Structure formats: structure tokens, C-alpha cells
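User: Hey, my collaborator sent me this sequence without any context and asked if I could get a structure. I don't really work with proteins. Can you help?
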Amino acid sequence: MLEFSGSTMTPRLDSLREALVLSPQNIPLLLLFGQTCLDELSFDEARAAFDRVLQHDPTNAEAKLGIAGALYLSGNISEAVVRTEALVKSTPSFAEAWILLARLALAEGDQTLAAEYYQNALELNPNMRNPVLDRDIRIESPATPASVVPAAESEAQESSEEFDGDASELTDLERPEVSFASVGGMEEIKEEIRMKIIYPLKNRALFKAYGKKLGGGVLLYGPPGCGKTLISKATAGEIQANFISVGIHQILDFYIGNSEKNLHQLFQLARDNPPAILFFDEVDALAADRKDFRESAIRTVINQFLAEMDGNIGSNEGILILGATNAPWHLDPAFRRPGRFDRVIFVPPPDEPAREAIVTILGRDKPLERLDAKTLAKRTKEFSGADLKSIFDIATERVLSRAMKEGRVVPLTTEDLLQACKGMKASTRAWFESAKNYALYANQGGFYDDVLTFLGIRK
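Assistant: No problem. I've predicted the 3D structure and written it out in C-alpha cell form, which is a compact way to encode the shape of the chain:
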């Protein structure tokens, strides 16, 4: 049995401890508990949890990384380096391990090596970009001319002037051609979005009489590949609104103050072109929990984001702010207050009728013969929309190979699609393994009740 020191008495850790007493061999739960202990600086408990994982699964890379992280945070740099180097040697595609190795190199004063490790991580996963590492590596690297140092005030001023331009330089206004008709299923989600922006547009006087404004914030969360981005574009297409897609690379900047300025300019672009949809994909990267960035410049970006959403800086009338995330548990709780992301919508994997609709949509404009969308929908339980598209891609490649050999168009059949889905597993299952633990043991205010309902669990 895993022993707990009880040194960190937070409600979340207490809940996780109680859960582990009931399920001491639950590896996803142990990993979640270990990471939470690291967040709360309870290193001994974290180490014990990760060791427990390795007893059941000696090859578990997350647990090995967790132990190395605990050693690093507790000041045992040398052992952390040895363990992390062994981890990247055995699992070279593990971007998180390269990130830790970069931190360790910085701790040892080797900025050149840190930059090399950091670059390895970004090549594996560009979403691993970290503003703190960006700053620390570049500030102290003499080879980087963009370093911000006190003596470079004139250069910083030039950079500030450069970013005073039009926000359209950061992104493009888009008028998507897709509409709700292009999205299979998701009827409840469509209705939520209609209430937020479509109905107010069509019935301005009626909504104004009830004090309801046009726009607001909606947070979409759920497993990857289930249509969060598509439904966001379709919303813009449904009302012929301007669509502004925002990525973290368009916001973060090395110069102090420019990240906040970039964010403001994108909001202003939406305010100048209503009705508009401002879409933040992977919004947790810009709306992360501020307690994780106690001494980081990203805190001011998060504060700027909150102020822009509140409308304190400019009116957000006519703007729908859509955020999509696979990891809502990483969001700062302040973003879920009224007036911000006050509608939180769970986007689950499509049910059988939705899968049938998606299959029908995916089959458009393809040389199909005898497509039985209902049969394919029954065979693909828990599959995401992205999984279904993958089935079509695999089947199409196989049929295309035959067509090239025969020199003619070979129709794609249901049998080809069913053959392609053999051996495929639903990509959503891994997400639900993590989400289930958050929903059961870190569900303050019932935020993840929809996940429990989908899984058929009563807490």
C-alpha cells in the first residue's frame, strides 16, 4: 500500500489520497496524484506515487519523468540529469523529457546545451513552447541578438513601435464556407451556440428587451478529434461572421509587454469587424492556472486575457469568444466566472446517429459504391470524427493502389471501410482515462459532471 506523509493538506490532494486507498493500483490515478504532489511541492509523496507506478509498469515514461522532476525540484540536479538522459535515450520521442533536460542544463549554467534540448522538444511537439524557457535561454545566450537587456532600450522601443501596426498582420479575417449542415450530430452543442449568438442576431429587439447581449464566451472541452474546431468554424459560417483563429505563436513575444499588446490587437480586430468569432484553440496555453506561473511573465498575459474578456478595455458586443481545449483542468478558475467562459460545453465523441451523419458527409465527392453508413457507425463505437476520417483515408489509399494497378477508378465500398477499421482503436479512450479521474476526484462545483454522465458513472 502506498504510504502518504500527509505533508500537504489541500482538498484536492486529500480527495486523491482517499481515492488511492480504494484503488491503490490505478496507474492513471497514481500519475495524477504524483503530478499534483509536484504542483504542491510535496516531493516525497510524488516520488512514492511514481515509484508505485513503476512497480506495476517498469517502462512507464511518465512515472520516470515524474521522479526526475521531483529530484530536480528538490535540488538533486545530478541524479535528475542521469535519470532524464536515460529516459530520452530509451524514449527519444518524449518531448516532455527533453523539456526537463533543457531546464536541468539551465540549472547547471549551460545555455547552449539547454537551447539544443529545447529545440529537440519543439521539433517533436511545437505546442511545448514555454515562455519561461524562451526567456531564460535567449536572455543569457550571447548568440541571440534579440535578447532583452537593460542597455538595449532603443532596440526595445523599435520593437514596440513595430507591433503598433494593424492586428491583421498577426492573423487573417476568414469567412468560413462550412455551416452547421457540414457538422454531423452535435445538436445540443449547436443549440447552445445558437442561443449565444445566432438567435440574438436574428432577434435583436427581443433579446435586448430581456437584457441579453449578443456574444459572450463559450468553452468547448473534450477528447481531441471530436469537432471542437469544426463547430467553431461552422458557427461563423452559419451567420456569415468573421472568424479569427488565434494560436499561441501569434500572441507570445520575447519583448516585455508585446504579448499583451498582441492579444489586445486581436480582440480589437474582432471589435472592429462584428459580428466576429474569436477562436482560441488549445486555450489552456493562454489561460493557464496562474498558480503555476508565480514568477513568470505569462501571468500578465493571463491577466490581460481576463481583462479583454470582461470588456473592461473595449466593448465585446457582437463578439463570440470560443475557446477549445483537451485539458480544461489546466485552466485558471477565473476564466469560468460569469461574463467570461460562462458556458462550458462538453464535446463528446459522436454517438451512433452522429457517426452515421459524419460517415455520410465524409463520403461526399468520393467514388463510392454501396455505402452503408449505419453499419460502419455501429462498428465504430467511441470513435472520434478524426478517427472516422482516418478510416476513410486508409481505405482510400488501399483502393487507390488497386486503381493505379488496374488503370481505372475503383469504387470505394463499405467492405473497404470496414476492413480499414479493423485493428483501429478509438483515440478517445486515453483521454477518458485521465478525464475520469479529474471528474471523480477533482470536480469542484460539478465542472466535469457531463463526463461522468457520458461514462454512466454516478458519483
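In plain terms: The longest strand covers residues 215-221. You can pass these C-alpha cells on to your collaborator as they are.
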